[in-house]
């Protein structure tokens, strides 16, 4: 699958891969959105060095343009054996890191929202990862950030773990295996209100539940968790992922 260097939609949005000359515009846009939200539980600021890393050979950055103006971006990192990123912190073996694409960050400016742009950026980012053989896409997002959760879930990712970042905030680990797996049989679903305690979320995940849906009705926002029957998969990295006891690290 080719890297989507350019993708033009009917509503005049163009998405293409960015080069390092876009470091400063991406930096300014990211932190502009952070100042708008100003809540570390939902979104975090980034410094120049962090953003610069996604423009080297171990990352990709994609930008969304509306009428020629940069209005959104999305980036991914490709860990290797000596990496210290998300997958390594979750305890994956160095030999498994080459299968993982770590979704790093993304944002969309207010004037470009309402166009499902985040969903399209997530897909383009995943396609870029697949060109590197990164079949397991991972991301972290605040459990209360229902709109970002919904975007990842609509792409086919599921919430599989709860991870506490160094600053102390919790993040839901979202993941999708793009390789062909055996058909999984769903065994049950359960609904829980957004805002349940960390301990409740961890207990659900440890019991085999995965976050599959976030929705809003007259009762407010809710999570929907799904359970599957056990399947056997002999690929070492898949076994490692399924066996990880990182539900509340």
TrEMBL record:
Superkingdom of origin organism: Bacteria
Residues covered by the N-acetyltransferase domain: 13-177
Transmembrane segments: none
A molecular function GO annotation: acyltransferase activity, transferring groups other than amino-acyl groups
Name of protein: N-acetyltransferase domain-containing protein
Organism: Segnochrobactrum spirostomi
